[in-house]
Design goal:
It is found in: Endoplasmic reticulum membrane. The protein has about 400 residues and is mainly α. The protein is built from twelve helices and six strands.
Length: about 400
């Protein structure tokens, strides 16, 4: 409740009719905006590579760069060309990262289990509330900005410096009810607000973390980097979302990264609505279950050499691809799974097409992961050595 405005969000909200409408509207809006995804990811990927190139061959920590560009991708999908200024968006992306780190701390997690503890002094809680306020102020400002510019608010006119906003093929237009082809209708203000929050959080920190893991693993396997670059050079043009079948090794590398280091190692808590059983064990109504995606995707009964980074496993006949569930499954699976997979595929492909990844002064990165709501790679620095253009 501390981060969801009392349960109005997709991730933590209860399964009521309003929640189902909210989820359906978000899924429909993402599907409607999918036609813009290819050009949008190419443009954002080019900007990502330009920022990486600006560092020359000096060692850099790539995570903040990745976080800004995944956040910018969501902003463009939500708002079209009417995105916030880069400085404002970069500050917001930092806020999201800090928020998830603080929320995952045990001193804060305990407050939902024992609400009376909120009355005691808690520096973590104070910081969390400050970050939530920053988050909510940013999101509300974007909603107001786009509502004021809409044709309905302008009385059908674009005078007085107004503009038709948001553009009709954006996610926000669908959620506001401005897109007649979108399902779900307009959302109530609190559900609209938290839908945007979920899209930003789900599409920024988790995707950036997965991209960071992919780069870290490839630093440990330079021969795989070379094979990926050869595959990319053999393709005609830069990678796009529709090229997953044409670039099987790149797609397998994305899948293996998500298998070995799912961005959210523990899926969202589920509550049993009725008495049932799971794996032969009784589950009483009201029981809270937390799926362990990290353990499931390293089950030795399903995956050979489960702790090894082996994208080749997905190229072999009979690969257990259906057991790959990094975004969960069922009614609470991530609605942005397709977007995240496409973003990882395009961004990683563009990076490998333009750069050779080499370890920084500290050597190869550690691969154990930092505990938290999002499974992050330990901080590392690397050198991005420009390649000859293919």
């Amino acid at each position: 409740s501390l981060v969801s405005q009392g349960g109005w969000d997709l991730a933590l909200g209860g399964p009521c009719p309003g929640w189902r409408q909210q989820r359906g509207a978000v899924r429909g809006a993402l599907a409607r905006a999918g036609g813009r995804l290819g050009p949008l990811l190419w443009l954002q990927g080019q900007e990502l590579c330009e920022e990486l190139r600006s560092h020359g061959e000096a060692p850099l920590d790539p995570f903040e760069v990745f976080t800004f560009h995944t956040c910018s991708t969501i902003a463009r999908l939500l708002f079209g060309d009417l995105v916030p200024p880069p400085g404002e968006l970069r500050a917001f992306s930092r806020c999201l990262g800090e928020l998830l780190q603080v929320w995952g701390h045990s001193s804060v997690q305990a407050l939902d289990l024992l609400p009376p503890l909120r009355a005691l002094p808690n520096p973590g809680l104070r910081k969390l509330l400050r970050l939530v306020q920053h988050r909510d102020t940013f999101v509300e400002a974007q909603i107001r900005r786009h509502q004021v510019g809409s044709p309905r608010e302008l009385g059908g006119s674009q005078g007085s410096g107004g503009c038709s906003s948001p553009p009709p093929d954006t996610v926000l237009a669908a959620l506001l009810g401005h897109d007649p082809g979108a399902r779900g209708g307009p959302l109530s203000p609190p559900r609209l607000h938290m839908a945007l929050v979920d899209l930003f959080i789900g599409g920024t920190e988790t995707t950036a973390a997965a991209l960071g893991w992919a780069v870290a693993f490839l630093l440990h396997r330079p021969e795989l980097q070379a094979r990926l670059r050869a595959e990319l050079e053999g393709a005609q043009g830069p990678p796009g979302p529709g090229d997953m079948g044409r670039l099987p090794l790149l797609q397998a590398t994305v899948s293996e990264t998500l298998r070995l280091r799912p961005p959210a190692p523990l899926a969202l808590p589920h509550c049993a609505l009725r008495h049932t059983s799971l794996g032969g064990l009784p589950v009483v109504a009201g029981t809270v279950l937390v799926p362990n995606l990290l353990a499931a995707q390293q089950d030795p009964d399903i995956w050979q050499h489960p702790e090894a980074f082996l994208p080749e496993r997905f190229l072999a006949p009979g690969a257990p691809s259906r057991s790959l569930l990094p975004f969960g499954c069922g009614a609470r699976s991530c609605p942005g799974e397709g977007l995240a997979r496409a973003e990882l595929f395009v961004f990683l492909g563009l990076i490998l097409r333009e750069f050779r990844l080499e370890p920084g002064p500290g050597g190869l990165p550690g691969l154990r992961g930092s505990p938290g709501t999002v499974l992050r790679c330990p901080p590392f620095r690397l050198r991005m050595v420009p390649c000859q253009p293919p």
